[in-house]
Amino acid sequence: METKKPFWEVKTLEEMTPEEWEALCDGCGKCCLHKIEDTDSGEVYFTNVACRLLDLSTCQCRDYLHRSECVPECFPLTPEIIRKVNWLPESCAYRRLAEGRSLAWWHPLISGDPKSVHYVGASICGKAVSEEEVDLADLEDMVVDWFD
Prior knowledge:
It contains seven helices and five strands. The protein is α+β, with helices and mostly antiparallel strands. Strands 1-2-5 form a three-stranded mixed sheet, with no helix packed on it. Strands 3-4 form a two-stranded antiparallel sheet. The protein is globular, with a radius of gyration of 16 Å. The model has no long low-confidence stretch (mean pLDDT 93).
């Protein structure tokens, strides 16, 4: 009897249903961190400062359905955007699949545990602060290199 392959191995990003698309998110919270781009080199640096909507204990958005209305610079990811942006972390499932790589072993779709991303330290839980706690003018002092 042949084993059915999981959707992320047989479908392109464009072919996925909205439910499948959402299931790809590993819940790491890295995309919710403030980033700084070097205008000369185009290199992107992550800070340890998270969006005000991110619950830092769960790495979940507190108003996911209305996030773009609450935070205009937050926009839904699409396959087209994923292939264009340079700020998604190496570990991001969307980026990994777009680049032809497989999901990480700790990804909840592989491990079967939605908290595995936190257990292995691949999320920002316990590592970030809310933008409400800092002066955003000091972001350059908050650049981190603790992931990927």
